[in-house]
Specification:
The chain is mostly beta strands and 309 residues long. The chain is built from three helices and 18 strands.
Length: 309
């Protein structure tokens, strides 16, 4: 119980910090210097609804993003589907497949695709030259396995392609993750994300958004209540902290709430850090929804499905 109190204390400090005057927004000097932004977009409405604080609690097909070590907890074949309806006609699609690998761990494959919609194409003088459709495509192969009852490790190998008009660029990256579990109630997770090559458009090369994600999770009330908090340390922006809660009712319904805060201030205002979601599961199927506001840009809605066999 002292561990749970500790997590709640951390959350209190975060909440208190929102009103502290030193958190006036300043633009990070590295903002906008990295490519491969699809690598930073979380998958699975269940995790997103908890403030995107899932590095320690990852335990399903969407662990391919949050922490591949969490794949070690999947003991059935799983298929995951997600649709993210973003602002400005941007859409994000994800499909993942998980397969327990004959007692030596769990393997997974996933594909993510972002469509930026149709954009106007102009020349240097501003004359319209038609339309184009930029996109990002990410393909990943992942593995998670247990070293012992308490420690799991995992990795993901990822191939990324970006297209802008007629120009394409590719990059390769890996994630390295680990989870420590004490009696399946208190969990510690870490994930080193996006270690990889640069992306080159014509003559310019851009690095990937390296990120270190560290988090805690604690389960209460016979695992009906999950509290989680984590911190991202990105190479191209300010450190940000997320926390959230998931309360399961009658083993079928989930209510979720969370918040994500960047030190220095959220780019799109305080409200943009809010996260909320609901879930419903019956038998081998689970449907989740998450709501994420983006300030003046609008709102986004994420729907995801997990089917187990």
């Amino acid at each position: 119980m002292r561990k749970a109190v500790g997590i709640i204390a951390i959350i209190f400090v975060i909440l208190y910090g929102f009103n502290y005057p030193c958190f006036a927004k300043k633009i990070n000097e590295n903002a906008g210097t990295k490519s491969g932004q699809i690598l930073k977009m979380g998958v699975g409405a269940n995790a997103v609804g908890m403030g995107e604080s899932n590095v320690a609690n990852a335990d399903d097909v969407y662990a391919t993003y949050w922490n591949p070590a969490g794949l070690s907890k999947v003991d059935k074949i799983q298929i995951g589907l997600m649709h993210n309806e973003w602002f400005e006609d941007i859409r994000y699609e994800y499909i993942g497949y998980v397969q327990p690998a004959f007692g030596i761990g769990t393997i997974a494959g996933s594909v993510s695709y972002i469509s930026m919609g149709e954009l106007d194409k102009t020349d240097d003088a501003g004359t319209e030259q038609g339309k184009f459709r930029p996109y990002d495509l990410l393909v990943a192969l992942s593995y998670g396995g247990k070293i012992n009852k308490s420690i799991s490790i995992g990795f993901s190998a990822k191939l990324l392609q970006e297209k802008i008009d007629e120009q394409k660029a590719q990059a390769f990256a890996v994630d390295l993750g680990g989870i420590y579990s004490a009696d399946n109630k208190f969990l510690v997770g870490v994930n080193l994300q996006h270690l990889g090559t640069k992306m080159k458009f014509i003559e310019e090369s851009y690095g990937l958004p390296l990120n270190v994600n560290i988090g805690l999770a604690y389960k209460l009330l016979d695992n009906a209540l999950t509290l989680a908090v984590d911190s991202n340390i990105p190479s191209d922006n300010d450190v940000n902290i997320g926390f959230g809660a998931d309360y399961r009712i009658m083993g079928m319904f989930d209510l979720r709430f969370g918040y994500r805060y960047a030190f220095g201030g959220n780019d799109l205002g305080t409200v943009s850090g809010l996260r909320a979601g609901v879930g419903f599961g019956i038998g081998n199927y689970k449907l989740d929804y998450a709501f994420v506001p983006y300030g003046e840009l609008g709102q986004s809605h994420r729907i995801s499905l997990i089917a187990s066999f």
